[in-house]
Amino acid sequence: MTPTRHSRLSTAGLLRRQFLAGPVASVMLALLVLAGALLATGVPRAVAAMHTAALEQSLEQFPAREIDLVASSRNLPELGGSSGETTLEPEIDAVWGAQEQHLLDIRPSMPELLTRVTGEPLSALVAGPTIAGVAGAAAGSNSYQLFTAFDPRIREHLTLTGGQWPAALTDPVPGSTPLEIVLADAVAEEMAWVPGESRSIPVGTNPQDVRLVGTFAATDPDDGFWTHVPPVALEPSVAFTPEGNIEVTGLGFADPVSWAALQESDLPTTMDVWFPVLPDRIRSADSAELVTQVDQFMSQVFVLGSGSWEYWFATVGEVAFASGLPDALNDAAVAASASDAVLATIASGPIGVMVAVLVLGARVVFERRRTGLELAAARGASPGQLRGILALEGLAIGVPAAIVGGLLGTLLVAADAGPVGWAIAALFALTPMALLVAAAPGLSPLRRARSDLGRPSTGRFRWMAEVLVAVLAVTAVVLLYRRGLATSTAATGVDPLLAAVPLLLSLLACLVVLRVYPIPLAALVRSTSRRADLVPFLGSARALRDPSAGLVPVLAVVVGVSVTVFSSVLLGTVQAGVERAADAQVGADASVGGTPFTLEQLDQFAAVPGVAATAPVYSAKPTKVTADGRGRTSTLIVVDSAEMRKVQQGRDAATPLPAELGATEAEGVPVVLSKPVADFVSGADSANLDGDDFEVVGVVDGRTAYSPRTNWVLMDVANAKPFTATLVPRTVLVRFDEGTSAAEADEITAALAEIAGEDAVVVTPDGLLTELRERPTTRGLVISLVVAIVLASLLTALAIVLTLVVGRPARDRLLPLLSTLGLGRRGERALVVWEIGPVAVIALVAGALLGIALPFVVLAGIDLRAFTDGDAQPAVTLDPWLITAVLAGSLLVTIAAAAAASRIDGSVNAARAMRKEEEG
Question: 121, 311, 348, 813: least surrounded by Cβ within 10 Å?
Fold first, then answer.
């Protein structure tokens, strides 16, 4: 029996032989498709991961109480047991179980996404404050205020550090049995309350003893639970009374069962019940849906008890939950939209270069196949068969490469960005087939045409296309400027107009290059024609008559260089903006804050060697601004304006403090307002601050170094007495001596931190700068810019190589003939450089100029404040060293690419060249 053999002349065999005859070009095109698919799937996932990390970090900046789903009531919980579904201890369940059951019954009514991002319900009740009297205390001695908290899960949130847990109080109150509590270590120390000691609080008109039986520390100080009880739970408040005496306020925890005995005590109470929001479970892509679900949940009322009256108090009934989560998510969405707009603008350039390189790669593959396909056409192959052959090879190149690239992009970035990336990868998979099939109509040796003779019939269409591109580019720029920054990224996110502007301007620059560069080249041909050296004349003449560089390679070079320069300018702008924002937020050489500071500590700060001046921020408390009967809550900031001007002297971003601010005899108290407050009172017939008149002496748009809020009222300490009872500074700004070195600044900072204590924080502009640069959004932008610079440079180099490879057939016919006439290898390489050199130089110059101009155009519609954390749009910053380095790198890449391409397969003998001339 004759064994079966696969014929090499079968269709599959011929296709295999065709592919193996020139596999390098096809492999290279496959690698381009793979890279495109990888970026298509990986980049959106990386952006989604960046947005989610930025959102989580943003939510962590909010106190948990501001974003949790909270219902707060001054009514009392309904006592009683549950149906057995709670996780409370049995004795605690007997008192708090009924309310816990109501909360558990609410949870199933939550939408699915809201349920996933919230935890199990919690509750806490705080009574007081009441005076905790010390037996035998002398007049004028320290006084103590005590809050008493009841937490059904006390042992989950507290860890005993001494003594014992409080016992449950079951006897009537007031009575002879003391109420046992535990205090945080710092609170017990400041209140001078030792375990075993009893103090009395008033319950109605009678005293009730309260005994300290132990001390505790927070099991997790960062737990959001601690934002639902007064801040004096872990750190005491020390203030001065109007009489000038020291008053210490703290909070103690009693056994939760004890509340049943205290329910009728007529103490002032506040109760919070809440579903804690878990930021690490929130994805940026779910923000819009989550906002809708939270708003829907907050619009409902839920039963938390009977709402009945018991003697002189009422139990809680129906409640509505509130949360600042929607506002926080919306703010984060605005920042994410700004990020997407910038990233889309950055990505548009490399995408353009990638498309150009793919076109060149497909042209290289087509030229490798041209001879064989033309032979098939001459032997009777129909156009459909030729297209089929090219389509099969295009699919064989594109589909496997796109699948591998897409899988790599999916595996490398653990995030979910939806199906968009795979849809773009599918386009990359089909691109080789489309480009190869589009070239099939030219497969006829009888229709060969010389490119250097031109095509006059296409001139009219070329002018029309160029005018259309120019009109589109100018229109896009005009529309961008007319629309401006205010309604751009915040409202539109990824704006097609904004993303198209760089590409349209790049395309316009390409057309200008193609129109302009023949003019100096023609002059060069005329000047070199009179010289004896052949290479300059022949090279310039060939570059003019038979240019290898058409629209596609010029587009690749112009866009590639402009992207690198634009990215470097944008990188410098963002870095400079972050530096200015860090300096403005600190407001001095150092800022010490976090805890109340004593007068002794203020004197110690000023006495540190190397400190030139200090200025405390005496108050940052809520206040109420009223305009024509409408009220608005704001933040009152109190400073000594004279001291603050000394500290902030010479700083560019210092908050203006007019001299009138310290006036004490004006009819209304002089104040500086933030712009939101100024807009609120603008045009009002009457406006007051906590009921008193004020006079506006300045308006500032944005934040100050004294408070992170943008909604504030600032006054001098000389006028603060009617508006705040206490002037305890929690922030101190410090100015160093002139000429302080970095090492000396570190020593001063360490000394300030030692004086402030372990719970305080010392911030410097350099330290905050490092923190701002490490934010996910800023870090993601910097990485994107660096990747764009590297990718655009590599693609530009590849475009130059492919351009010279496309022109290799003409060189294969010309160079061997010239070598027989005595042209050496150096002359051959020089002719290769002439093919791409003139237009590459002009394209480099055009790309550099365009890259420098683009930021001034594009940044009119991009809000960079999401990256800099500043209040103002950063000005475009041209870093000459960075731009020079990028341009030098682009030039070196271009030279290296041209040199490498000139050495590709340069050995063709004269006989073969002559045969090609006869055949072609």
Answer: 311
